[in-house]
Amino acid sequence: MQLPLIDNSWTLFLDRDGVINEEIRKGYVLHWDMFKFTSGAEEALGIFARRFGHIVVTTNQRCIGKGLLTTAGLQDIHTRMLAAIAPHGGRIDRIYHCPDVDSNSPCRKPQPGMGLQAQQDFPEIDFARSIMVGNTLSDMQFGKNLGMYTVFIPSTLPDLPFPHPLQDARYESLLHFARAIQ
Ligand SMILES: [Mg+2]
Fold it and tell me: Transmembrane stretches, by residue range (predicted)?
């Protein structure tokens, strides 16, 4: 499906692991030293900041529920991430995380809880004018559950077929997507 024309009435929802930073296979980012931006992600976030009215991150962080990371530890990683993107003109308006282990938790993607929370915090968010970018089908289902346009980044699932009913578009990386809407 053709990319919509973006203006500042649009909201960007971003998954984190495998999209903004390299996903750690069979593990978690537990401190800043383990956080590595995907190639060009900082530049991409600078482009998004100029295009989108709101930018939020929705990230499942089961490692908290498992006791591997504290909420304060996650916040420290995010504070450093935001500091690292600021020199590129990047901004993220709010970061939502789901700490729960239970796959059926209402906040855990693909359930829509984090999106609904974002809309409560920013009532001007219109899901029909929102794009969800992620690297799993759970992210794509989350976007579709809320009526968003979905963009798939094949960082960890390169063999997933495309076209696909849950994916409206597909880009090699966050930066490739950013350049497409620049
Ligand atoms: Mg991910």
Answer: none
- What integer best gives the mean pLDDT of the chain? 97
Q: How far is the CA of 156 from the centre of ligand 1 (A)?
A: 8
In this structure, which topology does domain 11-181 adopt according to CATH? Rossmann fold (3.40.50)
Q: Tokens representing 87?
A: 């020199």
53 secondary structure, DSSP code: S
Beta bridge partners of 149: 131
Nearest-angstrom CA–CA distance, 100 and 64:
7
At residue 24, φ and ψ (nearest 5 deg) are: -95, 115
Choosing from 7, 15, 100, 168, the catalytic residue is: 15
Nearest to 57 by CA among 48, 67, 69: 48
In the residue annotation, 17 being an active-site residue is answered as: yes
Enter the tokens of residue 85. Answer: 């993107």
Rg (CA), the chain: 15
Task: Give percent helix, percent strand, percent coil of the chain, each to the nearest 5.
Answer: 35, 20, 45
Give the pLDDT confidence of 149-175 residue by residue, as tens digits.
999 999 999 999 999 999 999 999 999
